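Might I ask for a little of your time on a matter of protein folding? What I wish to show you is a protein chain and, alongside it, a tokenised description of its three-dimensional fold. I should value your view on which stretches of the chain appear to form regular backbone elements. You will find the record immediately after this paragraph:
***
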Amino acid sequence: MLILLCQGAFPYAALKQSRKKAKVGVSELVVDRLMPGEDALTMRSRDAEHWIAVYAEMIGFKRQVLDRVLVGLDAVSNEARTELSEDVELIQAQMHRYERRLSFWADRAGVLNGAGPGNGEA
């Protein structure tokens, strides 16, 4: 959710209430939603290889983000660290979803390339 703040646009209390409603707990995330264009039932190995590359790229990106956030947490107040720890949990949850999807596509590629089924699930 993106909130644009304009001076005098609305009272702080409204912002605070809005933030409480906007918070999404890690447990509320859709666990393994598919990305647009991602077809878990594809019969083409090049599709599986494409999604392996996409998820590997996203995992690398999230690792870099997480590393920067964790280093940055050392420089903030305890109050800010407490609030920002929710961001860390969200980034970690996203990264774990990407890792599950990568594992699925690696297993799917194995099946499509004749290596046999793995235990990845869509």
The radius of gyration is 19 Å. Helices lie at 12-22, 45-73, 78-112. DSSP finds three helices and no strands in the chain.
